[in-house]
Every structure is written in structure tokens, then in C-alpha cells.
Amino acid sequence: MRFSTVRKTTLSAVAGVVLASTVLTACGGSPENSDGGSATAGTVNWWSWTPDNDLAAREIAAFNEQYPDIEVIYKKVPSDNYAAVLKPALASDDGPDVFTVNASGSYSAEAFAAYSYDLTPDVEELLGTDWESKVYQGGVDAFTVDDRLVAAQWAKVGAGIMWINKDVFDQYGLTPPTTMDEWVQVCETFRSAGLGCFREGMAGSSGFIVDTVHSIADSVETGAFQAAVTGEAEWTAPSIVEALGLLRELSENGVLDEGSVGIQQYPDVNNAFLTGQVPMVQMGTWYQQYATVNSLTAALDGAGVPADTPKITIVPIPFPDVAGSGNPSTMFADPDAGQAVNVKSKNRNAAVTFALWLGHTQEGQQVVANNMDSFPTLNGVTPAFDEIEFVDPDVQLPELQKVSEQLGQASDARSLGISAELNQAIIDAAQAMVNSDTSPEDAAAAIQKVADAR
Amino acid sequence: MFETRRLRSRIGLQLLLSVLVLPFVFPLIAMVRGSLAGAGWGNYATVLSLPLLPGFFVNSALLSAAVIAIVLVCTLTAAFGFSKLHVPGKEIFFWMLLACLTLPGVVLLAPLFATITRIGAYNTLWAVILPVAALQVPFTVLLARNFVDGIPDALMESARVDGANVVRTFWHILLPLTRPIMAAVVVLVFINSWNEFLLPLLFLQTPDQQTVTLVPQFFVGMYNNDQTKVLAAAVLTGLPVVIAYVCLQRYFERGLAAGALK
Amino acid sequence: MTTTVPETLATTRTGSPGRRRGVRRPAGLPWILPALLFSAGLLYYCIGYTGYISTLDWDGAAPIQQQVGAENFVRMVQDPVFWGALRNTAIFFVVTFSVQVALGIVFASLLHSRLWFKTFYKVLIFIPVVLATATAAPVFRQIYAPDGALNELLGAVGLAGLQQTWLANGAFALAIVITVQIWHSTGVVFVLYYAAIGQIEPEVVEAARIDGAGDLRILVSIVWPGVRGTTIAIAILSAIGSLKTFDVPFLITSGGPSYATEFLGTMIYRVSVAFSDVGYGAALSVVLLLLALVAAIIINVGGRRGER
């Protein structure tokens, strides 16, 4: 039939063009518009899933103090849609000039390396040839693909800690638990007062439960989780199986709030914690922003509670030693985000200026640090604590500083090396532990199957 | 249809109807209540004060208008052709068109990624207009063909005897009679194009091109999902469609009644 | 301008009336071309492209596409999530179809009776259709949350024992997805039945009344057979719609918990976008299309046969 021949020819033509255009784009190097525009003037479109609009505004304002002629337009895309939105944008000629990428997952630096400009020469110019020693090594590794620096890191994030509502703990005269038994008792007290205890959201696609599994596994045996991720050990190793069993125990003995499989960490758990209904959550270092008055006020506003709702005092605590083996609570860190520059950008030089400013200059990193939602990656930058208004500085500051030091020493990775499929497999196993009677061995075997497949 | 001569049965049926309708209304009430939580009407104020909001409404209106125009042209001509004219292998073509009803929107993503950027339609309303219109046509042609089938052939014949050619027959005889089904098509297509979310999300990138369905996104932060404003935005987005339906529902009903799927 | 048309001249959907009358009608091909070329053209191109991608191992962006033939399909057959999705789709179809048809017919019959404020009810039933699912989804998540409106209601009427973490339970989660879909599309079913029942001649109903038939009898013996064609059409649309379901499970339960509410649509999205496994996603799409076609044919043929 004539129709199908026409269809086939058109198909191969289109497929050919798509192939050709993607190959041409992938040959990064020198596109026709290699001029790149001025390095200190122009409009730069910046797309990212983080930070929030108000924090980004602060960062851009600070940038404009140094570079008043570069206009940065920030576009925030929810992380759930980020990968899907970025793909056609970068394939077209109308994509962003600067786009943020993650260290792993569906919008990783590697996934979009073909569209990213190599920043090595510009970083060397800015910080010298020994620039690698001046920044977080994990970020350098994560954002270097095939010897090209495809993204400039500017934030790192850690997890493995928990956050408590200190006011509620004080109200009932409780101290943060450090073992499983203590935790059970603390929760009994809270529940008899009508509050929740430890709440976590496993629904949706975010993998916060992976942090919990990681923490429990490290309590059983330090480094067990990391070993399984890198393939040194199997997921069916006894430590992981025991960790999964402990997760079930947490659910069965009243520590983990019911219904975790049906709620999402954001917004459900987040709102419940910040409005004082739940005393304990497991969030990472990004949560420290809610120790500040500004961020907490904005969060309460978003939670839909009246303006006079009391602002709680949040304090970080180490994850309890639920396995009872005496292993210390660990923190695992990741490079959180890096700025990639679109190879097709018409304002490439200005884009490079902005991309590097945020993560490799003192001024840029200071704003990032002061925003408190991420940690700086440039050595020697710490938040200017005295410039920030905390809810209860006497109680919170010492703990926050401890967390900062711990993060500096964290050696294990948080999500680096975990593919999207593996992440989903771990979430599935965790859900099975809480929601069904699948044995921990079977759940671990299911994770191993996914790990083997890729 | 049911026994309503006795007052007792009338009240009984009225009660039954009301009880059955309650579950449909409950979520609507919850939605409005949720949008007023926290800052109350302030939520609406915040949403309405988004600088480019009027632009979004304009874009949505343009999108819907274009889709409706394209769909109407394709539908009425095709209905006329399938129902009243001679087409070799007519039913084959008809089933080919109907088979497209089975296509879920999500399946279009991969091919559209490649094509939209290639033809330079990225970040233009056309990237959304063309796929949305294409997806509506099979169903509207189905409805319209049934409707036109119900128009007596004799009318066409007498027009031809009077010397009118095909185009004039279409324009002067058929078109005026298709008003009810046109109304039904307009309402259905308006609803679907106004509510389109996935395609604008992926292919419309700058606020000057974006549609009103993307407004709730502005209030979904990395850490703060501002539910109250998302709901306020949702209510505001839904209002035009609800109003349009309420105004046009009589014509809509008539159109479906006349062209009902038999 | 009405003309009474003799029975023999009335056109039917099947067959070509022109041939019956023996007179050559004007050529219709140019008229159906806009719809065919534009709509069918675009959509079949997408179908073809998807079919091509289903034989690849590709991430949607890389210049290198690896041909793997039918491997994606083999993988699909061995994937328990796939079969789970099919099972969910079947349950979803049966329940939504039955409930919507029942509600649709009852509403349509009620609103063809002499009751008060009919337009008000008609509009209320249809408003959920008009709202985008993306709009209503957050509301439903709130209603079914552990501290949400439903549990609140149960507590208020003294049924606190029935309070649950609804969305955390696989069976309930599926029920919720089904309920939301029913809420969203009963309006369409209602409108179609309302139109169809309007075609039933009042004399038939009157005659039955005189013979002493009650409301239920009328519903079963007159209304139900009278709207048969509409019911079949709704069955086809419902089957296709069930296979295409994406919005509701994606926004409310994300396909969980533990894939209890996973449908082919959500699976395709997860696989294509989150895992960047576009080839597998395309293979799933091809199967979805085939299933929809088969379902439509079966229902259509079954319906015709029942007529005889």
C-alpha cells in the first residue's frame, strides 16, 4: 500500500534527522556561534529545581552587586517534572543558558553531558590550576564526565540525621532517644498525648526512605549500605537483611507512624512536623533552613495554618542506634547540584560567569551558605551565623555547628551511584517491609535482582 | 420517567436525587474550603497578583480558540464527507480514524520531543495546539457523523436539483442544521484544550507562552508545597470552564440529544 | 423546516446509502482529507515512531540507539508490575463501567421525571467533568489523608473505628482511584444517557404505567433495553479509557503503594521519563494500543450479536 511506504520513508527521514542533530549537538566543542557573547553583560536564563524562588532571588541579587549588567532570569521547575521538561528544551534552540544538574538520577550531569559546555578552562582561570584542592572533591568527581567538567558544583547536602521538635520534647520532659528501646518509650509517651512520633512519607517518587534504610544499615554495620551500592557486597548480605527487618520492627512497635506508605514526605510530613503535630522526622542538612525565622514563616504560610501558629524550635539529632551494636550514627553526603552551561547558549560567556560565580567565588558561596538550605562546597566558607535570625539561637546554634563539622568529614555518598531503578527498588523493598509480610530476605533479593539487571 | 403524580413519590425521588448528588459536590466544597485555609481570601489575592497571570489566561484562550477552529473545520468537513458523499473504502478510513481514539497522551511524548524541536515549534503555542486538536478529531468526527446521518438525504438532493454544487450545499444547507452538534463539539473541545497540562508543561517554557494550567506550579516549591495557593489557583483556573459550561449547557444537551450515539 | 422522511430513505450508520439509491453522489474524498491527513496523519506517525522505538534500547537523547528487536516485549511478559497493571486495569474497567452506567441511567431517568431544580442537578453532576484532574487531585489527597476530611467525617458520626490510613492500603488505594474516576466522568455518561432516554417515546412509558408497572419495572424493561446502543458505545469508550488511565493514579497515588494502583499509563511514564528507558516505554505503549483495539472490536461485535 502506498501509504505505508510513504510512512516508512518519512519515518526514516525524521529518525535520521533526529540522529544527525543529536550527534551534531553532542560534538560540544565549537558550534557556529562560538563567539558566546560578552562575559559581563547579557541575559542568562537559569533553570533548576532548587532553590526556592525567594532564596534564588537573594542569590541573584548578590550576583548583580558584582555583575550588574548580567540579567539572570530564574525558572523553577518541580523536581518531579524536571527531567521531562529539560529534554526537549535542550534539544531545541530555545533552551536555558544555565541549567542545574544533580549528581545522580534522572537529571544527572551524566544524563545531560552531551548538552553541557566544558568548564575546565574557565575554572582554572578563576581559581588556578590547583582549583580541585579548593573545592569539595566529591563534587568534582560527580560532575566530571569523560574528562570534561560538565557542571560547576555549588552545594552539597548531607543526610543520616534526624530533626526533632525540641519544644515538644521539653514539654514532656524527654531526651532524644539513642537506642531502639529508648525510642519505643519516647514514642509511647508522645502517642498517649495524642501526637504522632516518627513520621516518614514513602509515597510518590522521592526516596527519603532510602536515607532511613541507609541509616539503619549503618547502625547494623558501618558502611554496609555503601558496600552494597558499589557492588562490593550483595544486597542479600546479612546486614542489609537485618536492616530491612529493623525497619519492619520500627513500624510494628509503634515508632514509625502508620500510613507512611500513603503519604508523601513533601508536603504531608513536612507540614505535619513544622506545625507541631509530629515530634520527629528524618530529613537532611537542607532542613536546617527551618531553624531560621524567615524560612519557617514561609513554610507555615504554605502549610495553610493561621499566622499566629507558634514557631517550633527544630534541632538535629543523630539517628538512634537501632541495631544496638554500638556503631556510630553516620552522615552521608552528596554534591547536591551543579550549574551546567548549555553548549548552544547565545550568551555562553555570561552564563559561564554566573555558573562559576555561585559555586567558586567567596561571595557566591557566602550567599548559598547563608540561605541555609545547602552547604557550600568552596573550602573555607561558613554561614555567617550572627547575620541570620534563628528561632532559638542558644539551643540551635551549637547543634547546627556540630552538623556542619560532621558533614565536612562525611565520606559515604548519599545517592551517588544509585540509579533511578535501584532507588525505586529500595523504595519498593521498604514499602514491602512496612506494608506486607514479605520476608526481609525476599525483599533484599528483589533489590539484588534490579542491581544485577543494570 | 418516574412516577411523580403523587407528592409523596415526588419528594421521595427528589430526596434520592439529592443524596446521589452529594458525593459529587463534596469534593468541590472541600476544594473551595482548602483554598481559603490559612490566609483566606489572601490566597486568591496572591494568585491574582502574579504579574503575568492575565497573559496566561490569554494564552489559554488563544490555545482553545485555535484548537476549536481546527477541530470544527476537520470535523464538519469529514462528517459531511463520510455521511453524505461517495468515498471509496469509506468505512476503512473511518475505522482508521476511530482507531486513533485508543492513543493515550503519554504515548505521544517521545515522538513529539523529536518532531517539535525539529520543526522549530518549541516554545510556541503551536506545539500544543496541533497535538491537542489531532487528539480531539476522532471523537468529534464520530459524534458529528452520527448527527449528520440523521439529516435527511432528501435535503441534499433537492439542493442539487436546484443547481447547487457540493460546496454550496455544505455551506448553505448543512452547516445551519449542524448548530446543535457544533455546540456540543465546542464545549467538549474547549474543556479538553483549556485543561491541557502535560503538553504545555513540556513544550511551553517562557511565561509569555504558558497557559493557565501551569499556574499552580508556581506555588510548588522544593520544600514548601503551598497547598492553599495551589487550590486557589486551581479554582481560578476552573472558573472559566464552569461558567462556559453553565452558559452553553442547553445547546450542548441539544447537540448530544440530536446526535446521540445510537 | 421539517420533512417527514419515509423509513426506506432514512440513513443508517453502516452501508453506503448512495449505492442503494443508485445515484452517483459527489466525491467525498477531498472532504475527509483534512481530518485524515491532519489527525490520523499526526497520530499514526506517532504510533509508527513509537513502534520503531519499541525495538530499541535507548534513553531518548543519546545519539546511540541500540537495536534489540523483541527484547523489550520479552521483558514485559516477565515483568510482574506489567501484569499487575493489567489486573488493575481490568478491575478498574469493570467497576467504573458498572457504577457509572447504573448512576448514569438512574440520574438520567430521574431528571426526565417531573422534579424540581433539574438544571441545578444537571450542572452539579457535570462540573467534575469540566475540572482538570490536576486541579482536583490535591483535594482528594487531602480528603483521604490520615487526618483528612473522610476520617474526620467518620469520627464525627461515631464511626471512628472505621478510620484508616486509606492511601496506605493497596486495596483501598485502588478503590480511591476508582472512586475519583467515577466522580470525574459520571457526568459524561449521564449526559449521553439523558440524550438517549430522551429518544424513548413517552407513549410506551404511559402504556406501561397503565398496565400497572412501577418505577423499577420501567427502568428494567423499558429504559435499559432502549438505551442499548449508548451502553455499548460507553462500554467501548470506558474500556479504552481504562487502558489509558494516567492522570488520577499518577497524581493521587503515584501508582503505589507497592504498585497497587499502577496502570499501563503510569508505568509508561515512570519507565520513559524517570528511568529514561524509552524503548521499554514504547513497547508498553504498543501493547496498550493493541489491547485497546482488541477490546473495542470485541465489545462492538459482542454488542451487535446481542442485538440479534
Q: Can you offer a commentary on this structure?
A:
The complex is a heterotrimer of chains A (454), B (262) and C (308). Chain A is α+β, with helices and mostly antiparallel strands and 454 residues long. Chain A is built from 17 helices and ten strands. Chain A has helices at 2-26, 53-66, 79-91, 120-127, 137-142, 166-171, 180-192, 208-220, 224-230, 238-252, 265-274, 293-302, 348-360, 362-371, 393-409, 420-435, 440-453, and strands spanning 42-48, 70-76, 98-101, 144-145, 148-149, 152-159, 161-165, 280-281, 314-318, 332-341. Chain A has a five-stranded mixed beta sheet. In chain A, strand 1, helix 2 (53-66) and strand 2 form a beta-alpha-beta unit. The longest helix of chain A has 25 residues, at 2-26. Chain B has 262 residues and is mainly α. Chain B has one domain: MetI-like fold (Orthogonal Bundle), CATH 1.10.3720. In chain B, helix 1 (7-35) packs antiparallel against helix 11 (227-258), helix 3 (53-84) packs parallel to helix 6 (126-149) and helix 7 (153-161) packs across helix 8 (166-177). In chain C, helix 11 packs antiparallel against helix 14 (278-307). Chain C has helices at residues 17-21, 29-53, 71-77, 80-110, 118-130, 133-143, 149-156, 170-197, 202-210, 215-226, 228-244, 247-253, 264-274, 278-307; strands at residues 56-57, 66-67. Chain C has one domain (39-307): MetI-like (MetI-like fold), CATH 1.10.3720.10. Chain C has a two-stranded antiparallel sheet. Chain C is mainly α. Chain C has 14 helices and two strands. Classes of the chains: A alpha+beta (454), B mainly alpha (262), C mainly alpha (308). Chains in contact: A-B, A-C, B-C. Chains B and C meet through helix 1, helix 3, helix 4, helix 5 and helix 6 of B and helix 1, helix 2, helix 4, helix 5 and helix 6 of C.
